Description:
The complex is a heterodimer.
Chain A: H1 2-6, H2 17-46, H3 50-59, H4 61-94, H5 100-112, H6 115-126, H7 131-138, H8 147-173, H9 176-183, H10 188-217, H11 220-226, H12 236-245, H13 249-276, H14 278-284
Chain B: E1 3-12, E2 15-25, E3 30-34, H1 41-49, E4 56-61, E5 64-65, H2 71-74, E6 76-79, H3 91-100, H4 110-123, H5 139-152, E7 157-161, H6 169-186, E8 189-194, H7 197-203, E9 206-211, E10 214-219, H8 221-226, H9 231-237
Parallel strand pairs in B: 3-8, 3-9, 6-7, 7-8
Antiparallel strand pairs in B: 1-2, 1-4, 4-5, 9-10
Helix pairs in contact in B: 3-4, 3-5, 4-5
The complex binds adenosine-5'-diphosphate (ADP) and magnesium ion.
Amino acid sequence: MSDIALTPPVPVTTEPVLIRSLLIGLSLVFVALFLFAPLVTVFVEALRQGWGATVDALRLPDAQAAIRMTLTIAAIAVPINAVFGIAAAWAITKFDFRGKAFLITLIDLPFSVSPVVAGLMLVLLFGANSTLGGWLIANGMPIVFAFPGIVLATLFVTFPFVARELIPVMIEQGRAEEEAALTLGASGWRTFFTVTLPNIRWALLYGVLLCNARAMGEFGAVAVVSGKIRGETATMPTMVEMFYNEYLSVAAFTLAAVLAMLALLTLLLKSLLEWRHADLLAATRRH
Amino acid sequence: MNIEIEELAKEFGTTRALHPVSLSIPSGALVALLGPSGSGKTTLLRILGGLEFPTSGRVLFGGQDATGLSVQERRAGFVFQSYALFKHMTVFENIAYGLRARKRHERPAEAEIGRRVNKLLDLIQLPDIGTRYPNQLSGGQRQRVALARALAIEPRMLLLDEPFGALDAKVRKELRQGLREIHDRTGLTTVFVTHDQEEAMELADLVVVMSMGRIEQVGKPAEIRAKPATDFVRSFTAA
Lengths: 287, 239
Ligand SMILES: Nc1ncnc2c1ncn2[C@@H]1O[C@H](COP(=O)(O)OP(=O)(O)O)[C@@H](O)[C@H]1O
Ligand SMILES: [Mg+2]
């Protein structure tokens, strides 16, 4: 280890300086143009008429209801999909069974189906015109144009994130450590909590953060199933659209800025955790 | 504790990993399962440890039927081929794992756990590495930690899958001696898997030569050298 650190830094790549600077410059321009500029615009637009107008926009009951709705949806959908994602990844990587390939394809389905189509499927399945939907409405449990529908739509579109992060990590780690725990007398649960979970925690964290970002940001599927009823089923993204269509530009961008800040907060949280646990992160990398 | 293997067979789908095999392992013996890759050694060892269940046949530990015992109930100290140390735990926590996993009323107090772990670290002659992580150890050190971790549960037997496979020649020789000493000191019935005939002959009291899911010959190293039972044994053990 230490003797490696003592050797002078030798450049690993042999590309000429020109090409290197060109590539770096190009990436920076791209990042600035397509990631940073839009983000800045959102905040600039939100503050265009001064802080007062921005704060007033945040006080709008519709805006507050949308924020509450989005946070509630994420608080429900993310834990559920974390658990299901772990279960799916576990089943796929630790057991051999028939239909495994099919299950893997199925997990990816929400990625390949357009969110709008996903929303429509839920409307067809649970809407007033279907038998199931009619029965549910008659019994006072409407799904479509109501809270449960938004949860279902969000669960559907965010399902792959956790499982997709976990599967490669769990395949790479194999079963040996878990088997070792079992031979040492640990129960299945104990093995899961003391061996499996610590080994996948970083992948799980990434999966959960991605899942959370999408859960808060989902527009298409939610727009279809929620009916976008102000103050009732409108989420932050759908409310942003409605404000914008009504030329309430400050309100729209203020809400968009809150959404962006929630996303930045998740990124910050991730970086903070990585920084705090850098030593452990290094130790748990493969030997 | 003596181990009896009676007509044990194992199939994976259409692959026959073990044809019915039978074997008696006397209490306290140091036994080598010797054979080329794919001969069924690991499968047999994993069935003994309860990590795999046989398609048919029985396993008896100390005269008692153990075929249906779960992996936890077997209390077999298992050393895995690539050691399978817990990467996110220190060496100390790795060795203490089995003690901490015990039911509350059987679990030793914290001070007692510390005492036992330190004793095991002395036994493997690595007294000062308790606070390190597995990725800060050499291959030979990892192997010895895996051995200590397996011994910590006060196992009824010791099962090792290619314990020297991942090591260079010099370390391999040292650790062979180390395993012999630990075996002699603990008196545990020990079964280890190897594809290296020299290793099996030098280290084991009893060598079980396997090929294609069958046991070709069982005997003391000298017997197998002097009287190979089949052509396969003759060619495989020719040094
Ligand atoms: N989990 C498994 N699934 C399918 N086949 C297996 C499995 N484990 C072992 N086998 C097969 O069983 C045979 C014996 O394997 P193994 O016991 O690992 O041999 P060895 O340890 O002697 O190299 C091989 O043909 C191997 O491919
Ligand atoms: Mg093997």
